[in-house]
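Schema walk-through. Below, the input block comes first and the output block second. Nothing else is stored per chain. Lengths vary across the set, and this one has 353 residues.
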Amino acid sequence: MAFNPLNWLLGFFSLDIGIDLGTANTLVNIRGKGIVINEPSWVAIDKKSRKPLAIGTKAKEMVGRTPANVLTIRPLRDGVISEFEITQAMLEYFIGKAHQQSIVPLPSPRVIIGIPSGATEVEKRAVYDAARAAGAREAYLIDEPSAAALGAGLPVLDIKGSMIVDIGGGTTEVAIIAMGGTVVSRSLRVAGDEMDQDIITYLRNKYNLLIGELKAEQVKMTIGSAYALPIEKTMAIRGRNLITGLPDTLEISSVEIREAVSNSIRVIVDTIKDALDEVPPEIVADLMETGICLAGGGSQVLGLAERLSDELKLRVWIAEDPMTCVARGAGIVFDDMDGNSRFLVGLERLSSR
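--- output ---
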């Protein structure tokens, strides 16, 4: 990275911000302060003007409750931007909220944003442009699995291989990293959102009960599982009966929800197996010693680590505070920008435009 005296001077006074711009949640990490924002990636907009009315937690509370002139949307799908201007407004809101952490006015911040490893050049450019338009002085991108591995504290610079599986809302990122580089990676657009849709479809087809995305997410996190539980759980679910059109309540078990999400879990397991199949035998031996680290909100589905461990014959463990790994990892890069620049994506190409 070329030395820039102005940026060096500004660096003493501005914020360095790592952002996990997720399909389900956006997390903001300020260097030296830690995670300061963790809010849903929802925006409520006026249908006619397309102007944001609420962002984050307030917008998510409006889902399914808005009048005809208000629309609640998630401007990212499958980990990438689907609504550019709304994503820009959301980033501007979160960056501005992070700036409020300071009691004195500060220059525009440097920002590092996590992106799926399978993002196209157009998708990368959209995230970069949105960050700059939202007020970032400098914007950089980092592959989510690399950021998650850094945030989880994996020894990514060691000669021995480490494996990270980051299960978010829109994507599942799988990567084997050694000597600061990615040996094998997979980016799969099957993750938490797909499981939510599985639950909606299952209840509609089997019980003629219609529920929304937020209720499906709640069901997944409460009784969803990837492996048989020591004591199976039940939960009462309220929705609309599609036959009568009237409100209805159904009690459903964790066994049924496990059946509902089984296809998505199977795809994730098969993708991890596929990645392991390409790994050199020396790194396989390393992984037999170090195991596989799970990160992301989806890693917290009950029994997932046990299911993967059983199928892969490797130790599988969940990172500490798995939801914040990507944001924390993006923040760690700022500690040594020169040494950690290897983890940044398209740095020279994007920064020079």
